[in-house]
Amino acid sequence: GAGVSQSPSNKVTEKGKDVELRCDPISGHTALYWYRQSLGQGLEFLIYFQGNSAPDKSGLPSDRFSAERTGGSVSTLTIQRTQQEDSAVYLCASSLGLAGSETQYFGPGTRLLVL
Amino acid sequence: SQQGEEDPQALSIQEGENATMNCSYKTSINNLQWYRQNSGRGLVHLILIRSNEREKHSGRLRVTLDTSKKSSSLLITASRAADTASYFCATNLRSQGGKLIFGQGTELSVKP
Question: pLDDT tens-digit profile of A48-58?
Answer without folding.
Answer: 998 888 899 99
